[in-house]
Amino acid sequence: MVTLVPAEAPGDERGALLAFVEAQRGGLRRSVVGLGEEQAASRPTASGLSLSGLLKHVAEMELNWLRLAQQRPNERYDSGRTWEEGFRLTEDESVASVLEFWDGVVRETEEFVRSLPGLDDTFPLPPAPWFPEDGRVSMRWMLLHLVEEYARHAGHADIIRESLDGRTALELVALERGEG
């Protein structure tokens, strides 16, 4: 999992944006390295967030943006689910199953983005009070938004993980590499 995107990131804008998205994904994935299910589901801060819940949220968030860009329905969307339920694993979910689901979303996102002739094509934003009515965004905007979303939640994950066992993001990089 990439930690730092090199200055000579894959040649073009598309490759660079995908590399930055992947770097931020890596921070979230590393947050659960070495943890059991119970630790990953715990909420050690005043927030209701857990590491496993963050993983579920970001995987579903990426799928939602991908389906919007593809202009296809999101097969995982459940209109009866509350916002908080999107941040908690259900009885049939585990860290491993969420990571496996996310891996599939990542592959599909990368294939879709690489198949496009460019990043300027737009798609409609979903109706929401924070989006302009009839708003549209480009694929470039979507990739930048994924960087923003992942970076925000990677920061949450850093705080939660450090609250659990004192391990910092840099220590998790070393642990992932087998150096910790």
Describe the fold and architecture:
InterPro entries: DinB/YfiT-like, MST-like. The structure is a single chain. The protein has 180 residues and is mainly α. The chain has a single domain (13-176), classed as dinb family like domain (Four Helix Bundle (Hemerythrin (Met), subunit A), Up-down Bundle). Helix content is 55%, strand content 3%. It has six helices and two strands, in the order H-H-H-H-E-E-H-H. The protein has a two-stranded antiparallel ribbon. Helix 1 (13-30) packs antiparallel against helix 4, helix 1 runs parallel beside helix 5 (139-165) and helix 3 (51-70) packs antiparallel against helix 5 (139-165). It starts with 12 loop residues before the first helix and ends with a helix.
